[in-house]
């Protein structure tokens, strides 16, 4: 495992981290700051020590929020952020820019917002197809040399891109969407990560809420919720996907755990180098997710789960066509 994460393990911290995007971005209206700060304080108190944010989230508002929440706790947490994808204030839209000069400027701005002198992991949020990955990673490597970041990360990249990046600088972690109903890292990325000693940080480990069993009607999602534009959640595909959930819910009931805990336990069963970062706005949901850190599944249960929600069974792609154009990671043949 990457030394960045080994430090958490050595002090007995949970291996499950907290994805903080939901407070400011992606799932309806942002949470009011006072409420978000209370939730983040509670998350720390209950044991979370790995907090993940990005320049993109809330057009920098999420980093500012984390800076306030962790200002007196910085030396006790693993803090990760991301660069190379942001909301352009003049254009009012998302921009992908992996140029070295942009990476440096974004890092320095992120450090100010996060009220820290370094980041434990700094990810390139998306591959900029106009910039060789070696140039982007080279810039991140120079930030390591200067002590502004401790580890270089990549997000939503293929095994091929990871190998090219590793030749330029050691990659501490790759973030990829990974859950029981999104198995894309199993195509090639997990193997590459293990060969290179790179941790796989699994975002959306609860299937963007699907695996909790609480979203019975996708039409109930709030206006502005990013899932409304995702094919798996549309009116044609979502009922079909719900039918796949019943056996999964039955196993959770058999084990006396929540569906979300079962989803996280399945991910943890994939290896110690797979690190889930579920996101939640709700303190009780955070507590529920963290409790899965001590849940261990036997081989028979893992085998049963492996046969569920396989790529050939799930209806719809994980991203829209426009979103998919920004993704470098491997996809299953349709």
From TrEMBL:
Keyword set includes Transferase: no
Pfam families in the record: Aldo_ket_red
Gene3D superfamilies: NADP-dependent oxidoreductase domain
Superkingdom as given in the UniProt entry: Bacteria
Residue ranges of domain NADP-dependent oxidoreductase in the record: 16-307
Keywords: Oxidoreductase
Statement: the UniProt record of this protein carries the keyword Oxidoreductase: yes
SUPFAM superfamilies: NAD(P)-linked oxidoreductase (SSF51430)
Name under which the protein is recorded: Aldo/keto reductase
Organism from which the protein derives: Modicisalibacter luteus
